């Protein structure tokens, strides 16, 4: 097992954000105590008619929401990010990757699979599907 | 009994119909969507600090060889005369190619929502409802050549360049490996614009729509694409009989890829087969 705790946290978080409303999340993400350092992964913008919101997740990795729905930002070895919508374009920042995903989304909304996928933990381990339940 | 995978352009009308019918039958029973789900589950990127078995990794080729074999086995339970044809995209490189015919893969998506409107996998036909995907869209989507930022399919010359590689894979065993057959064929490259999308990756981008993301298996052309990728690997193996799968041994503690990639004799989930066991397909199928 390599990083089961991190995987579990991410999955729990994905479930939690799915349960919340986009509006509540927006307030949580942007509310920063005065004087606290700015979240390096924060963004909050309208792009292509979608509301893009970014912030640092509980494990320190960047999190993106598109219209309140989680978009998995997958870190690449070149330092960039790909998303489940566009697996082939490594973008330099979480915001660029989120915009690239929106460019391909058309009129569609993200599904629950877009928030977290690809989570096998061990080469001999069986199905990783439990985390999706 | 060794069976043959044919170039899709050489299939007879009857062979096209039988392949489509077997795929639709797997969809009807739910088996097809399990293949979609498996591919979704095993996509992990190479900067995430955990095991990668299917993409951006040496086992990209043997993992997909096994994935195709499992799909083909399911197809052949429906119809023992069917195999997975291959799409040589260096040759059939246009939206007008017969692969996109109404009796086979169907055509491009329409402009408004990229929905595929023709062929057996058009949602309106009632037999191709998308179950597992990264969006809540229920229809198959395609966006040939990505008109807003056009890209062409890989050329024969580009593929020949990949075939000149002499080593299976090299450190750091991921999408940044600067040489080695695996990463050159998978198609990760530095640079700007469309230069970054090569060979296998470029084909996913050229088809676009669902083929671009985690739900790419929802487009049946996925199998024809990967059948050709597997053919290319097979031809490369023939040309380089001494070039075994690498890494041969599990990478040691201290290596940045320790426990992140499958070595030659390590099992690949979800099947438990090793890359070494996938190396020789000659007793199961051959390419025409």
Kindly describe this structure.
- Chain A: One of its GO terms (biological process) is melanin biosynthetic process.
- Chain A: InterPro entries: GriE/MELC1_sf, MelC1.
- Chain A: This is Tyrosinase co-factor protein.
- The complex is a heterodimer of chains A (133) and B (288).
- With 133 residues, chain A is of the alpha+beta class.
- Chain A contains three helices and six strands, in the order ααββββββα.
- The longest helix of chain A has 16 residues.
- By secondary structure, chain B is mainly α.
- In chain B, helix 1 crosses helix 3 and helix 3 packs across helix 7.
- The interface between A and B is large, with 44 and 52 residues.
Helix content of chain B: 25-40%
Spatial ordering of strands, largest sheet of chain B: 1-2
Please write the string of helix (H) and strand (E) elements of chain B: EHHHHHHHE
Query: What is the CATH domain class of chain B?
Result: Mainly Alpha
Q: In one word, what is the shape of chain B?
A: globular
The total count of strands of chain A amounts to: 6
Keywords (chain B): Copper, Metal-binding, Oxidoreductase
Cofactor (chain B): Cu(2+)
GO molecular function (chain B): metal ion binding; oxidoreductase activity
Protein name (chain B): Tyrosinase
